[in-house]
Design brief:
Blueprint: H1 2-5, H2 9-15, H3 21-33, H4 37-50, H5 54-66, H6 70-83, H7 91-100, H8 104-115, H9 123-135, H10 139-152, H11 157-169, H12 173-186, H13 191-203, H14 209-215, H15 225-240, H16 247-258, H17 269-277, H18 282-291
Helix pairs in contact: 3-4, 3-5, 4-5, 5-6, 6-7, 7-8, 7-9, 8-9, 9-10, 10-11, 11-12, 11-13, 12-13, 13-15, 15-16
């Protein structure tokens, strides 16, 4: 555990087999909470070699989902919740993976179970339920749930971005743009709000992108992942969307991303869909996303 907390992941991988399975499971859970998914997966698999543990199935299932392996995630989460059908803690993540596989009725049931139980006040669960309702075509319900999330916490800026994209799809473009921009103004110094604003402008191909990008503070005081994401957006805009690759710039970005000690997990679905729709280099983009995972 000490090695995990100190982010000495090579040490964790070298020594975990010497420890009790319960301790290894505890360390795997800690790594999962710290977003170190690929290391946690190794530990969970080792535990499952000896014990068909619902806790380990949930842990590895969530880690696999966070690394975008949704098929493997579903297999483990199905087993976890079949073994513990009354469990509500983590049920919203199970619902999220179910919706990824088109099992919408089941997803709705598990979202409701989560929100009526252990995750009643969980903004991730509530905002992803709103996104689920949007994808299921229940637009009025989605708007209602997004508004509830932002009433509970106006600084939950991921919900601002997702709600804005929904509003834009409903033809309420001015309201959508203002929502994301106002989230930046209301949360000065919030890097997630700033990145969401830049991403929104990128997705909507707004001429304000360059100005907003220039306002991002990516200097020495920024966390290491922040300039990496900002440069990732720039490469997407200037080289992937335009089908004009720059191998040297990409190589420099890859080196910076590989040097990160922390995982960067983010909702890239809309950017991937836009790029695919343009016939862009989705393989390079997908490889960039994978490089952000640890």
């Amino acid at each position: 555990m000490e090695a995990a907390l100190q982010k000495n992941f090579d040490e964790v991988l070298a020594r975990y087999r010497r420890h009790d399975r319960d301790e290894v499971l505890q360390v795997a859970d800690q790594l999962r909470e710290d977003d170190i998914y690929n290391v946690a997966i190794v530990l969970y698999r080792w535990v499952l070699d000896f014990d068909d543990s619902p806790a380990a199935h949930f842990g590895i299932g969530q880690c696999l989902g966070k690394t975008y392996d949704y098929a493997a995630a579903l297999s483990h989460l199905d087993r976890a919740f079949s073994a513990e059908p009354e469990r509500s803690d983590g049920a919203s993540y199970y619902a999220y993976i179910l919706e990824r596989h088109g099992r919408m009725e089941e997803a709705d049931r598990w979202y409701q179970h989560a929100l009526q139980g252990a995750e009643a006040n969980d903004l991730w669960a509530r905002s992803h339920y709103a996104w689920f309702l949007e994808k299921w075509g229940r637009m009025d319900d989605a708007c209602r749930v997004f508004e509830d999330v932002l009433d509970r916490n106006p600084a939950y800026t991921w919900a601002s971005k997702r709600y804005a994209l929904l509003l834009r799809s409903l033809g309420r473009e001015d309201q959508a743009r203002a929502l994301v921009r106002d989230a930046v103004r209301a949360n000065p110094g919030n890097r997630f709000a700033a990145l969401n604003w830049v991403e929104y402008l990128l997705l909507t191909e707004d001429d304000g992108y360059d100005e907003a990008r220039a306002e991002l503070e990516t200097g020495d005081e920024a966390p290491p992942w922040f300039p990496v994401l900002a440069e990732m957006f720039d490469y997407y805009r200037n080289h992937l969307l335009t089908k004009d690759p720059d191998p040297l710039r990409l190589e420099a970005w890859q080196a910076a991303a590989a040097a990160l000690h922390d995982t960067v997990h983010r909702d890239f679905d809309d950017l991937t869909a836009l790029l695919a729709g343009r016939g862009g280099d989705v393989d390079t983009w997908t490889a960039q996303i994978q490089l952000l995972l640890k």
